[in-house]
């Protein structure tokens, strides 16, 4: 074998010796280190480049295959992609994890140590971004021609530090050491216009066309990351846009001595992709947020049109070949941008452009909260994207004409449905734009979709009865079971085969094992070992020592009032009082995690309260190991991969009617946790799937919540009726947990004793009753484990593969494209 042939083989082979040679070659050639000099970080980069080489040939083959058949492409536009660490995921999806482990072991390197060196990609905040990441994995595994579009944030949302019990935000410098997975594509950079004005110019055919004369242009430079499918050769692409100034540097100004002004434009431009979700309480913050949303959608739409035009001469088949899915309202300006590109730049007549735009675009709604249904002042539109305001006005004018034609005597309906809220201030309703400009709109759980139909978009649903549909969310079993819980995965594969990794419905075959005492014992041992792992993480990150034999009750998610971390910590306070009183309670570890938005004062107060309670409880010798309270800082994907396999009790306790779906509930149940929850979001479907007897249900229904709100319920009413709640409230009111800072939680108290908007006091008694049922069940290990096994066995419907197949069938009308690598192309 010649050296050239061997070199090519080492760049692609998946055999152990070839992998070892490639690793050592990358250590020298790309890291500039020999084995004795290399650090653990060098090992990570060398291995990541080794794995990346094996992705690239598949990536190229995927694109060639899809172009060869002119496949319909799915473009997933999302402000977040919370992809987590990629190395372990790539090793598993390529099927080379064990061979790489062996290759590294021959060099005296533990693969676990290498994997720990990878930093979580700071590209998202919570469920929205993690869902997008699960979807990319499923789209690649199924074989859809897929691009995920987003922003290459230089800094993520923030790195959360807990100092004196309070959340402190630090920059999330996830790119500081570099990113081995991305490839810059400057040849596909696009100009993005901002500000200025519009003028009419002759179109050469006796008419006129609108030309946008911008005040500023910014370059969007794409960075591509391959997302490998599981057990196949298909690779999806995540394309993220970085903002750069169109003129990097003013040398003349610099030479004149004004060094700051010489790079001023560069800095202002690059701020666009600097930070995920900048605070928008100031006019400057609002402006930057809208710039971000327009920037990445403008780049993405131009790229979509460019790619379409490689194979087509006109736009007659655009919607037949292009599916654009908008993940929430953040990318909804894509509708106006696509109209601008088609009408202004390509001369497509308005009606044809609108038909193709609406035929291509679809919108996923993720919230019913009015404050989360984005609105932007028309004055800000006029300032930043004046042409789009004109287009939105035209879309709205035509839409309202249709509304009035259908309801000529209902003068108020047009105002309610209008894309423009006349204010004051006058604003663009982005959710209305997304609904009007899409051929399909979907909710993400059955209850959520019903609320959209009956309340949020009731009049739109009446007008377009076939447009709004449900697509219950799911999670990828590759990340959230195979990768996160290798012990349980091995037991499942040994018991029912490996088919569950791509067909999660096969978990149903596990049901008979719920009655097998030997299997239950194995499942218990696995859970216990996972809890030992989590206990180590807790001690390392917080200094708190917890007993792995205790019940691990877990609530990890974004900190928000409707998610009701407050209800949980109030119950913890009640447990503390009972233990102090001498009650016999099963030992419990109450674990919290999640980030509060920097400007969300109440959420930050909740973080402070949880830590204040933890300080008192954990130091009380009378309590000991019977109750521990932990707030794990900086909750992220890699942390969740340790938490979910160790979770005993999944706290899904949001106010009924507020959580769109939630996916943490799915991850926990898939890993054998039992759920305590309300009839909200995906809880309803999980309870239906696993059986009511295997789910701890409490609380009011969405209808009861609405009735109580209409009756002007006040939290103080419930406090008066419940002595335990009254005593807990007294602990807060008398500053028991923060004697050195009296009045610290006055806002928290006022929020629940007054309107009690999220019905914390109203649901407390039933929550406490249900937690008592949990305590009884956990004292019977055989019963608990049987329930846990049945939870795992019945979670098949909550695979993101199922969700994506439904999107592909019902919304995108896209088919999977089989990518087949010839043996010599693989190695």
What labels would you give this structure?
827 residues; alpha/beta; ten-stranded mixed sheet; six-stranded parallel sheet; 49% helix; disordered N terminus
- Give the N-terminus to C-terminus distance in angstroms: 14 Å
Total number of strands: 23
Rg value = 28 Å
Unreliable stretches: 1-7
| Mass-distribution shape | globular
Structural class: alpha/beta
Kindly report the oligomeric state of this protein: single chain
Query: What is the mean pLDDT?
Result: 94
Helix content: 40-55%
What's the total helix number? 36
Into which percentage range does the β-strand content fall?
5-15%
The largest sheet is:
10 strands, mixed
Structural commentary:
The N terminus is likely disordered. This protein is 49% helix and 14% strand. It is globular. The strands form five sheets. Strands 1, 2, 5, 6, 9, 10, 11, 12, 16 and 17 form a ten-stranded mixed beta sheet that branches. Strands 20-19-18-21-22-23 form a six-stranded parallel beta sheet, sandwiched between helices. Strands 13-15-14 form a three-stranded antiparallel beta sheet. It starts with a helix and ends with a helix. The chain is of the alpha/beta class and 827 residues long.
